[in-house]
Amino acid sequence: MAKQNVAEQFVDILVRAGVRRLYGVVGDSLNPVVDAIRRTSGIDWIQVRHEETAAFAAGAEAQITGSLAACAGSCGPGNLHLINGLYDAHRSMAPVLALASHIPSSEIGLSFFQETHPDRLFQECSHYSELISSPQQMPRLLQTAIQHAVGRGGVSVVSLPGDIASEQAPEKAPEHALVTTRPTVRPGDEELNALVRLIDDADRVTLFCGSGTKGAHAEVMQFAERIASPVGHALRGKEWIQYDNPYDVGMSGLLGYGAAYEATHECDLLILLGTDFPYNAFLPDDVKIVQVDVRPEHLGRRCKLDLAVWGDVRETLRCLTPRVRPKTDRRFLDKMLKKHADALEGVVKAYTRKVDKHVPLHPEYVAAVLDEIADDDAVFTVDTGMCNVWAARYLTPNGRRRIIGSFSHGSMANALPQAIGAQFTDRRRQVVSMSGDGGFSMLMGDFLSLVQHDLPVKVVLFNNSSLGMVELEMLVAGLPSYGTTNHNPDFAAIARAAGAYGVRVEKPKELAGALKDAFRHKGPALVDVVTDPNALSIPPKIKAEMVTGFALSAGKIVLDGGVGRMLQMARSNLRNVPRP
């Protein structure tokens, strides 16, 4: 067997760990690894135009597949560009291995050209960040990094000088079986028994669900039925818990709707399932609260808990549900379902009033039509800002669709790069980037990556020529909007010039046909929809301190606006409410 250098060994271990792509931008210190990929079957080098895109793409791939994904940046400025996407992946618990190639090892610490210290720089956005300073550290260091990323859910960073990558790998170096999946975590009997007592003693229980309910839909529904509990969710829990849910009372938070807020405040026991919901102004301070989470460091950091339960949601509920006494009194549940439907009846009028004739187009209308036309198993990637609002209120989950965004890190420009990673996992699956004009233009260069790799991503551009959410924050704070206006080109013309399909929509009657034509196109496509920058109305009681970059400090009222097909869902749930 031919002797390997460190770069070749590095790549072989990635393949063994299930990595099929390495996203990045080539550069001198990274060249040995890229060349090793060129000569290795089972893994591809995915060239992008910006390393931030590489990290976002890897994070999205990891969220879609649940498996390890990888990205890379060359020394200094190259790997520095990874950091924003790595922060997002880490906060989304997406298992990502980042390779930060480094300056020559003999020059480290001497202010060499492009010198940084990546092993230090990435510590805050990773579980593991270490420097390979000798070939003898391989393969153990890389194996350790992989196991941190997979086992703890998040990012690991390996810094590798280019000269070390070219050196001969140690012969007969110890290799061990890689951990590539995570185990389930079951709470102890003592915690389960304490939780059973709290539930049995409570008259009104509400469940509030986050992304930790992934894979636990059936268990949550069975548990809610047994204890007659309304079920609310955070934004990251929407795709996992809202569909086929007769106990749904909507979403809480700044983008929320329905009766989720009332359900969490009028109960006498609130159970937080798999959510690290950051907006504690929406959480009650006068009811008992239990939190169930697979990450023990999440327990109790948002609110005072009466019981902390360390375990994953699915396994916890499998153990818990048979132990609790069934609750036959549905009055609290039925009351919340009625409040939910009434709340949606009130706000849906803002959406239905002449919206199909309004020019510029209401973004609510665009999102609703998109929801109707998109495939049942589509992947939506959603830009931070107003696109979050439209995704939260108009995209209908069904257990097969995916909704990915920078929901914890809150970065601009995430949707297009995440769509790249999502599409590479399955070229036949429909991937839709819900992009704002601000976010899209920030990393617009990687629209060229769609064309270069012939990725059939469909970019639906909500083009209101402004940074809409920032403008809203200013208005709510009593400030005149300033620095929020974008002077935009015809993005559809740019798409066509790049070799993609591009169409501009300025009238409502053009929208459905334009979306259908773009979705039928076999390659990348962009639909530039000119939307109304004043579409979002603000309730008169909202206060200045309520909105600060997506966080609430003391707010209780959500923004007004339509809610798409959720009203229909709420009405259908009301059929099960006993009539007096």
Automatic annotation (TrEMBL):
One of its GO terms (molecular function) is magnesium ion binding. Keywords: Pyruvate, Thiamine pyrophosphate. Residues 383-529 form the Thiamine pyrophosphate enzyme TPP-binding domain. InterPro entries: DHS-like_NAD/FAD-binding_dom (IPR029035), POXB-like (IPR047211), THDP-binding (IPR029061), Thiamin_PyroP_enz_cen_dom (IPR012000), Thiamin_PyroP_enz_TPP-bd_dom (IPR012001), TPP_enzyme_TPP-bd (IPR011766), TPP_POXB-like (IPR047212), TPP_PYR_POXB-like (IPR047210). It comes from the Bacteria. Belongs to the TPP enzyme family. This is Pyruvate dehydrogenase. It comes from Streptomyces ficellus.
